[in-house]
Specification:
alpha/beta; DUF3105; six-stranded mixed sheet; 6 strands
Length: 174
C-alpha cells in the first residue's frame, strides 16, 4: 500500500466521521441544554364539564396543567381567563403571557401587546391576559413550564414562546 493510498483512506474516513461526530454533539447539546423557565409537576389533563366543576387545587399560580374545560380564543384580552379554561390552551400547545395589573404600568401592557399581537396574527398559539395576584409582575406559562419575570424582558418572552408554543400535550389512546 502506498503512502498516497493510505492518506486517501484516512481522508475518506475523516470526511465520514467528522460530520457524524458533529451531528452527535449537536443532538446531545440540544437534549441537555437548559430550557427556559422552571418545570412544574404535571397534574394531568382531565376534562371538566364546566369551569365551576369541583377539582383538586392547581399546584401553581397561574396553573400549567390539570383539570380543564373549554378553550379561550388566542390573542390578547383585557379580562382574566378562568384557570380551568386557560389550561386547555396550554394543553393545545399554547403559551400565555400573564401580567398583574396591580404591578404593571399601562405602557408595559402596551409593550407586551406589541410582542404578542404580531405572533398571534401570524397564527402562533399565544395569549396575553391580565392575572391578578401574581408573585412577579409578568409570568409566562406553557404546559408544565413557568417563567417569572420581575420586569419586561422581550428576549426571554420570545425564547419561552419559541421553546414551547405549538407542542400538543393531549394524551392519545387514553
Amino acid at each position: 500500500m502506498t503512502h498516497q493510498h493510505s492518506s486517501n483512506r484516512l481522508t475518506g474516513w475523516l470526511v465520514i466521521l467528522l460530520p457524524a461526530a458533529l451531528v452527535v454533539i449537536l443532538i446531545v447539546w440540544a437534549a441537555t441544554r437548559p430550557r427556559p423557565g422552571e418545570s412544574v409537576a404535571n397534574q394531568g389533563n382531565r376534562h371538566l364539564t364546566s369551569p365551576t366543576e369541583a377539582h383538586d387545587p392547581y399546584n401553581s399560580k397561574p396553573p400549567t396543567s390539570g383539570p380543564h374545560t373549554g378553550k379561550a380564543p388566542w390573542g390578547t384580552t383585557d379580562t382574566q381567563i378562568p384557570d380551568e379554561i386557560q389550561v386547555h390552551n396550554l394543553e393545545d400547545g399554547g403559551v400565555i403571557v400573564h401580567y398583574d395589573p396591580a404591578q404593571v404600568a399601562t405602557s408595559t401592557v402596551d409593550q407586551l401587546t406589541g410582542i404578542v399581537q404580531p405572533l398571534y396574527v401570524k397564527g402562533r398559539r399565544v395569549i396575553l391576559e391580565p392575572y391578578a395576584g401574581l408573585e412577579t409582575p409578568i409570568v409566562l406559562t406553557a404546559w408544565t413550564r413557568m417563567e417569572k419575570l420581575p420586569t419586561l424582558d422581550e428576549e426571554k418572552i420570545k425564547q419561552f414562546i419559541t421553546a414551547y408554543e405549538g407542542t400538543d400535550h393531549h394524551v392519545r389512546g387514553a
